[in-house]
Amino acid sequence: MALNRKIAYIDLSTGKVEIKPIPVDVRKKFLGGRGLDAYLLYNHTKKGADPLGPKNTLIVSGGILTATCASATARTHVMAKSPLTNLLGSANMGGFFAPELAWAGFHHLVIKGKSKKPVYLWIHNGEIEIRDAAALWGMTTTETQWAIRRELDDEDIKSMVIGPAGENLVRFANVMTGIKNSGGRTGMGAVMGSKNLKAIAARGTMDIKIAHPIDALEYNKRFIDQITSAKVNQTQGTLGTPFIWGATNSWGGVRTRNFQYNQCEYADDIEPERIDEICTETMGPYHMTGCFGCQVHCRAQYKIPSGPFAGKYDEGPEYTSQGAFGGEPDCKSAETVLTGNHLVNQWGVDNLEIGSIISWAMELYELGILTSKDTDGLDLRFGNDEALLEMVRRICFRDGWLGDTLADGGIPASEKIGKNSFDYLIQVKGMNNLHSDERATPGLALNIATASRGSDHLRSRPAIDLYHLPEAVLRKIYSNPVPYDGPLSSEHTEYIGKPWQVFWQENCYMAVDCLGICKYHTTFLGATLPNFEDWPKVLYYNTGLEFTPRELWDIAERCNNIERLFNLREGLTRDDLKKGDTLNHRYFDEPCLRGAPDVIGAKIDRKKFKKMIDEFYGHHGWDKNGIPTPETLKRLGLDQEPSHLL
Amino acid sequence: MEKILKIDYQKCTGCRLCELVCSVSHHGVSNPARSRIKVVKWESEGLYVPMTCQQCEDAPCISVCPVKATSRDETDGFVVIDYEKCIGCRSCVTVCPFGARSYSSIDKMVLKCDLCGGDPQCARFCEVKAISFVSADRLGQSQKKDAAKRLSIAQKAAATLFPE
């Protein structure tokens, strides 16, 4: 039964492990996955805790549907206070780890304290052992995983690990499983590193009883047909996320040269079709792979075609790597993108953050704010592929003054570099943005400004806004499961109706993260994919729990509010440029220079943006400062937090 | 008509949905340890191969069984276990050249693919058709066609190299 998966509290300082059931009442309030993680973080981390100190709590989980007979329940969620933002830290990854953790008997791990020496956790059929990891320290992410399998003599072990970047406390180090599945954002790898925790290895053969197996199986088949019939997922399954690059770059939504341009020109070598060609040449016609139980199979396999790492096998690259190692630094070679992707996967660092921060440094270098003395002679200009990859290494290993400085994240680095370097940093709440450019899309701009983990596209992005769907279709999507009769616009350059869309998407993505399924299986890139109407059935067939779509919406809203409470407790204030729901001044001041006719000249209107934020807060039941009102907290049953139910 | 599972491993994405639906349809639980099919992986090479019973004509598992619990079903042509007779000695697991039989310590019994009584769920759920359920005498059909296509492409290319 999914509901009998346990929660374990592990204190690495004392070595004490405590295992408890998760009461159904708690499930009904927070479901599981990211939602319950947020509750646990709020309850188990004290205000002002040092993110890299023993008082920070690291929470690892699968969703309530993980490894059940539902579609694509592969997601692992990781949460802690972020060493990058000093606010909410949260990362989500695919692969096979969370299902294995569930078969081993667990849904949530709450890890506290700090081990004196490197250790890893070995989780096997209801038991948890803390083991010595001295031999693993210093290894890359894949070396670590294979070494654990050898040590425990079981090829089916799935591990979640950190690489050298996490050990070196790079504040945007990620956690990884498999070849490239990464819990990338907010530096969760550094939190593991700070606890001397190299890996969590899981292996399980415990039944997850399906409440209504025949119905679950048949409904899953229907679900799969719905998902694979969507054109967007068929394209994903052929080209992977790079397909997004083709479309986005053509209309002018790709940040280039940090933030100087919104389109990467002459980039044929990193177009999705070219990447696909390399994958076919090196891995054959069937080179797509997928996470547990998923039919979208959006991950490509490749070998680096040329250069110093020629022949190395890896997976991806994702859309994010095309931006990080292609568009932003203006290095337009497939070899560089594929090599950069390989290096970050091996060393365990967030591709998105490192690409963005290096392209920021490149802009500073060209402006003379950074000099060759600061770079130890490295010619850090845009378009210098070698310098880009060398900088990746220096950051991961904190080599040299600049590598060490950038490894601390954008805001601390800007304080160290000084001058007006901060003005050029494309960040929200201390986390750098994806390589996307939101100046022509106010809805997407609102999304990155208000996302709970800092500038981020996976928290509340109304991506279907770009499809110009008829208003009637938008209304059908956005007025369920709660009624909405306010304005909606099919025009992506508009401001009206966007706050509601972002609010709706925020709840939609939270629900998905609580269930433990992938966002490609809901209203993210595809407008016809399952959402609130469908999930109650999947939940009932698999777990026996009964919910209405409205109840799931309420749970999602509750979980989003507890994330908000955490951020507010750690100092989020609405207009704070470093900790608020704001955007860098460049979004308002510098118009787009390239792209489609309606994109050229676009920038965000300050007044209208402020009004969007007000409206967005209003939909939540938050006051003008973005603080949930007492009535809102009471309505969501959060007026007694922290309530320490678990 | 005798039908068997055709495994085209190159198409396999390694998602293991086959393992999941196998355990759910047979036992009502999600647990790959109780699945009759297993995807063997070389992750560092990106190679995934689903392994399951080949329904061999001259099946070693039939020959080795000391109590004749394994036999060929005459109507459908596939290899079946009679659990009334099976003593759980695991000889068939050891002798199978494909490792397609497994012993489940949960069920205390030997597991093998029973083709779900004629509607194998692994094939039904495999979207990429790495697993398909085909007539035994048409097993090589698609390879034949693929090879023929390659041959015709090669011959066309050769013709352009040596014009008359």
Quick recap:
The complex is a heterodimer of chains A (646) and B (164). Chain A is an alpha+beta fold.
Describe this structure in words.
The complex is a heterodimer of chains A (about 650) and B (about 160). The longest helix of chain A is centred in the last third of the chain and has 21 residues. Chain A has 3 domains: about 200 residues, 4-Layer Sandwich (Aldehyde Ferredoxin Oxidoreductase,  A, domain 1); about 180 residues, Aldehyde Ferredoxin Oxidoreductase Protein, subunit A, domain 2 (Orthogonal Bundle), CATH 1.10.569; about 190 residues, Aldehyde Ferredoxin Oxidoreductase Protein, subunit A, domain 3. The radius of gyration of chain A is 23 Å and the shape is globular. Chain A is α+β, with helices and mostly antiparallel strands and about 650 residues long. Chain A has 24 helices and 18 strands. In chain A, the strands form 5 sheets. Chain A has a 6-stranded mixed β-sheet with strand order 2-1-6-3-4-5, with helices on both faces. Chain A has a 4-stranded mixed β-sheet with strand order 8-7-12-9. Chain A has a 3-stranded antiparallel β-sheet with strand order 14-15-16. Chain B has about 160 residues and is an alpha+beta fold. Chain B has one domain: Alpha-Beta Plaits (2-Layer Sandwich). Helix content of chain B is about 30%, strand content about 20%. Chain B contains 5 helices and 9 strands, in the order βαβββαββαββαβα. A two-stranded antiparallel sheet of chain B has the order 1-9. A two-stranded antiparallel sheet of chain B has the order 3-4. In chain B, a hairpin with a 4-residue loop joins β7 and β8. Chain B is elongated, with a radius of gyration of 19 Å. The model of chain B has no long low-confidence stretch (mean pLDDT about 95). The chains are: A alpha+beta (about 650), B alpha+beta (about 160). Chains A and B meet through β13, α7 and β14 of A and α1, β2 and α4 of B.
